[in-house]
Write a structure and sequence with these properties.
The chain has about 700 residues and is of the alpha/beta class. It is built from 13 helices and 41 strands.
Length: about 700
């Protein structure tokens, strides 16, 4: 099987692995049924995620809890699925649902306070202008899995001090060791990872505190710090003491929490996956066997763009650490609470496609959709929607989505990124203002965190690090003056005429094969002349439709030139090939006729299902035909009663293949299904946009 055929039939190992919200009374047969349903829709893995709404009588990490999970492990093993175990109940990780602190209150999270007056329980450290620096319990909590345990509720579990080795050891004993005790035979086969979720030193719902732990003042002063300098932490100031503080806190978090979990997972034949607290926490990613991040709350999005602000570094951050450390996979927990404009269930397909493409072109190769809900009963439907699985309107056609994510994951796992720019960075400082122009000019780059700089070597005017070579080095403090510090010292991955600031490009290589993944990050179509640095013929690989066609191109200065039309929400893989392979592939789809929305008339409406059905009559054409309409949101096209195509964003382009139409009159039926915000949230329009 050649590479293109392998990509078309991407192996199951590249499946999306969604959060499976175990958020109700767990019935063995229902769990088995749902797992079989996932497989039937092209989803061959899950994260077993205890979630708010679990049976109040089922104690987290109790014997009954593990007994309730066993049928899921058994069925997943029988189906050949992959399972990641979630290490908390619910998040942030590190507290074992409050059990670390129960009976051991001294293991609760601690913080550094600047206070005018000492409070009961405070441990004073030193006097400073304005009061005291004092160590105190943070009062932080986590979100629990039972009613009354959410943020601000009396039963919210206390967070543990993840900078304290004793607390972390207790967390591992209560959580990881218990899972091992019950499910050891599945580790390394069915169970591939433990998922740790945004561990937070202070816990949630704290104010006016900086991260701290018992005995940290001694560590700080031994390293040469002056405690009084830390008052600047509370005013946003910076001095030698604050810089030392941040370095030591990071090192402590790495050594005490991440290194301990990473070592436990490695010793038990599985990976540490999940993600740290912040989008630009790049240094701790080194401890993950599957580095990861969390695309949530529309911190980036189609309406704000993909290159603005700290969170725009997400995806690239985790993928680049995986590349530097030789990790084959990196993950992203995506889509959580990404509903539009305060309407949590309004997350249309066009948004999902945008986010998937945003992540893939940056190198993410394991998608963790947030989430598939075990139950939508009662208030469960309002707990961090939307449902990205069986509870979505897309589920009947979910193989389109799962197949796309699987092929992208295969592509980004089995190729190497080709880039000419090294972009130096520090933890929580991934310089998005420097990354943005590189993205917009289609100039590939690799993040190089500060901890790797000692391994870098300047040679022959290039920077070398871990087997990679760069023609330019940016933001590295002048350490390598013989290497150009300007991005334009290296050519872009492709040339656009006219320039296209909304085009994202990843230049990839697999052996001798070169390819370019192109993504439209803008709201308008991209139309330009594209020049790629190759002399070989080109193929167009549509990973969404899973088809390969010949791409017309010609020789040009600097490579091969072709016309590029990348529609809104469009993505395309262009691959260089030899002449024989080019001839083997079919020509691109060219319709004999194009039908617009004006050809269709409203025939029926079903308010209960949020559907509108439109019909059109077509004569004198045997195809192929392209139906192009603007609609909200999912469009299914039937031709003479047979499903021809489905589309999920506007403008919907639906194909009627040659041979589907007969001479005489043909009936085309277009069914538009609207957002489930109409059921669970604020109503939004659905139907053709041309409707009066």
């Amino acid at each position: 099987m050649n590479w293109m055929d392998r990509l078309r039939e991407a192996p199951r190992e590249y499946t999306p692995i969604p959060f499976w919200f175990l958020n109700d009374t767990l019935d063995a047969e229902e769990m088995r049924r749902q797992l079989r349903d996932f497989c039937a829709h092209g989803v061959y893995g899950v994260v077993l995620h205890p979630r708010m709404g679990m049976d109040p009588g089922l104690g987290y990490l109790s014997e009954a809890f593990f007994a309730a999970l066993r049928p899921a492990l058994e069925e997943a093993a029988a189906l050949g699925m992959r399972v990641a175990l979630y290490d908390e109940g619910m998040y942030p990780s590190g507290s074992a649902g409050g059990l670390v602190v129960r009976d051991h209150p001294e293991l609760a999270s601690r913080g550094l306070a600047l206070t005018e007056e000492l409070q009961p329980g405070d441990r004073p450290l030193c006097r400073v202008p304005g009061g005291w620096l004092a160590e105190r319990f943070s009062g932080g909590t986590i979100r629990g899995v039972h009613a009354g345990e959410d943020d601000g509720e009396p039963g919210a579990p206390p967070s543990a001090d993840i900078l304290n080795p004793e607390a972390v050891a207790r967390f591992i004993a209560l959580t990881h060791e218990r899972y091992w005790q019950h499910f050891a035979p599945y580790f390394g086969s069915t169970v591939i990872a433990f998922f740790t979720d945004e561990p937070c030193i202070l816990g949630r719902n704290t104010r006016g505190l900086m991260p701290w732990t018992k005995g940290f003042d001694a560590l700080f002063t031994k390293a040469g710090g002056r405690l009084e300098d830390l008052a600047a932490l509370f005013s946003g100031g910076e001095n030698e003491g604050t810089r030392l503080y941040h370095r030591l806190i990071l090192r402590r978090e790495e050594e005490v929490y991440y290194a301990a979990l990473s070592a436990w997972c490695a010793a038990h034949g599985i990976a540490l996956m999940g993600h740290p607290e912040k989008s630009d926490d790049i240094e701790v990613e080194r401890f993950f066997q599957i580095p990861g991040q969390d695309l949530v709350y529309r911190w980036v999005g189609p309406e704000t763009g993909d290159v603005r602000g700290v969170d725009s570094t997400m995806g690239k951050c985790g993928a680049d650490i995986a590349r530097l450390t030789g990790r084959p996979r990196n993950a992203n927990e995506c889509f959580g609470a990404c509903g539009r404009a305060g309407n949590p269930w309004h997350f249309p397909g066009e948004d999902a496609k945008w986010f998937i493409d945003y992540l893939a072109v940056r190198g993410v190769n394991l998608f963790v959709p947030h989430a598939f809900y075990y139950s939508l009963r009662g208030e469960r439907s309002a707990e961090r929607p939307p449902d990205m699985g069986p509870g979505s309107i897309w589920w009947p056609h979910y193989r389109v989505w799962s197949g796309y994510m699987t092929r992208l994951s295969c592509l980004m796992s089995e190729t190497e990124l080709q880039c000419g720019v090294a972009l130096g960075c520090r933890n929580r400082d991934l310089v998005p203002e420097l990354a943005a122009p590189l993205f917009m000019a289609q100039r590939g780059f690799q993040y190089l965190p500060e901890s790797f700089w000692a391994e870098c070597e300047a040679r022959d005017g290039r920077l070398h690090c871990r087997g990679r070579s760069y023609g330019a080095a940016l933001n590295m403090g002048g350490r390598f003056p013989e290497v150009p510090a300007e991005a334009d010292a290296v050519p872009p991955d492709c040339l656009c005429e006219p320039p296209q600031s909304g085009l994202r490009c990843a230049r990839l290589r697999r052996g001798a094969d070169e390819m370019w993944l192109l993504v439209n990050a803008d709201e308008a179509d991209i139309c330009c002349e594209l020049t790629l640095p190759t002399e070989r013929p080109l193929l167009a690989v549509d990973l969404w439709r899973n088809e390969i066609t010949r791409l017309d191109s010609g020789a040009a200065p600097g490579g091969r030139r072709c016309d590029l039309r990348l529609p809104r929400r469009g993505s395309l893989l262009i691959a260089a090939c030899d002449e024989a392979e080019w001839q083997r592939q079919p020509a691109a789809f060219v319709p004999a006729r194009v039908l617009g929305g004006e050809a269709f008339s409203l025939a029926a409406e079903d308010p209960a299902r949020f559907t509108k059905t439109y019909t059109a009559r077509l004569t004198g054409c045997t195809g192929p035909v392209l139906v192009r309409v603007r609609a909200e949101e999912m469009a299914e096209l039937h031709v003479n009663g047979r499903l021809a195509d489905v589309a999920f964003w506007s403008p919907q382009e639906l194909r009627v293949p040659a041979g589907w139409l007969h001479e005489g009159e043909n009936e085309l039926t277009l069914t538009i299904t609207g957002s489930l915000a109409n059921r669970y949230g604020q109503p939004v329009y659905y139907g053709l946009e041309t409707e009066d």
